[in-house]
Amino acid sequence: MSVDTVSLTGWGRTAPTTALRFRPRTYEEAAATVRGCGPRGSIARGLGGSHGDAAQNAGGSVLDMTALDRIRTVDATAGLVVCDAGVGLHRLAEVLRPLGWSVPTPSPNRYVTVGGAIGVDAHGHDQHHSGSFSRHVQELELLTADGEIHTVRPGTVLFHATAGGLGLTGVILSATLRCHRVTGSWLSVDTERAVDLDDLMDRLSAGDHRYRYSAARIDLLARGRATGRGVLTRAEPVPRDGRAPRYARPAPARRTPFAFRPGRLPSLSALVPHSLPGGVCAALLGELRYRGAPGYRPGELQRPAAFFRFLDGPARDRPRGRGGSVRYQFAVGFGQEEALRRIVRRISLRRCPSSYAVLKRFGASDPGWLSFPVPGWTLALDLPAALPGLARFLDSLDEEVAAAGGRVCLAKDSRLRPELLAAMYPKLDEFRSLRAELDPYGAFRSDLSRRLSL
Ligand SMILES: Cc1cc2nc3c(=O)[nH]c(=O)nc-3n(C[C@H](O)[C@H](O)[C@H](O)COP(=O)(O)OP(=O)(O)OC[C@H]3O[C@@H](n4cnc5c(N)ncnc54)[C@H](O)[C@@H]3O)c2cc1C
Questions:
Q1: Which among 43, 118, 120, 449 is the best mutation to test ligand 1's pocket, defined by most ligand atoms within 8 Å of the CB?
Q2: How do residues 35-70 score in pLDDT, each as one tens digit?
Q3: For ligand 1, atom 39, which residue shows the shortest CA distance?
Q4: Which of 23, 56, 84, 112 to mutate to test the pocket of ligand 1 (most atoms within 8 A of CB)?
Q5: N or C: which end of the chain has fewer CB within 10 A?
Q6: d(CA 418, CA 424)
């Protein structure tokens, strides 16, 4: 097992902290590290894809799980995979696709391990259709603070605390996942432009149930009557036999029905000179994205990589520039549309230079106690951390979100004030009691757990 002292950040590259990093290669090494962790405790870390400080532990230890990356068995008939928690979803997809299966919640998979996806209960652009990641976990092996390994199944208290539990109940060593059948490697994509926020929300509400994947890029710099305008892209997998009349399938689609070619596609941001000030750059990108999209184009065949690139765009690159970036994602329930409108108006009036802003509708939530999705609306945006007055502005948005019964996403967070947490996550007390019982001496800790007293 390698051990070194490193300075770590989350994906947003803000607030680095130093920790002793252990990289176990066996479950025994992982257990020895947990048993021997000092008073500052330890926390599991995958690929560091969470934006904030969930996988950091200042002055303590961090268990880098990426060397535990064996895919143990694949049942290609039932679509069941047993693998180590350090396996990247991207690698899993490479193995599963040719067999006709896809990983659950496929969108952010390049930067996510199985353990990390369970630890934050990741949601994809198909959450309204397929739920979040934990819905597809049949069982997992959890290394707890006493150094023991437990098999944990859905429907149990330990499962509910661990799915979305940010690594604070223990270290996930392996998981059995139920995968989706894939019918081919192409998506039929419908694109439409919405002139303002109400138009965008109406379109999302009216049609989401017809699509597996759905999300809208929203132009948060548009103002006046155009406030909240956006481009909506929704997609359905194309059936392999191609009998559906809408799809004119090109020859490569017939030759390579299960190809997995994520590739590295150029992003729109490459067209905008980086010497421009952040606000101008973001405004230009918003304009290009909006004007460049068709008013209405149904049934376009796209590779999944191209579809997800439009939705996730430049944010998939590491944040550039001084100070890193802050991801802010919140959700408010159905019936709280006015709160969403107010927040979008406030962001737009403040001219926040957000290079990434995506609006989605969540469907039914999963039972993880700290799992983020609730049925309703979610907006995610990236902001430069160095933006003057950002902390105060986001604090005030937090208050608005909490007052509307909503919540911010803890996996993306690096700045929420602890006093708002209980209002956002009603199962917080259960989570804290279970932790107190399971881990009385605080073997599992992170910068986030200290900041929010989890
Ligand atoms: C470009 C980009 C797009 C993204 N889009 C989305 C999105 O659409 N939806 C979404 O939900 N998320 C999204 N994310 C966030 C990402 O899904 C999560 O942060 C995920 O946890 C990252 O996985 P990781 O393996 O890197 O975990 P890390 O970031 O290393 O850790 C995240 C949390 O999981 C815990 N953890 C990690 N491994 C284990 C383990 N083995 N056992 C126990 N706990 C563990 C850590 O302690 C930490 O609390 C995105 C991230 C990026 C970079």
A1: 120
A2: 999 899 999 999 999 999 999 999 999 999 999 999
A3: 115
A4: 112
A5: N
A6: 10
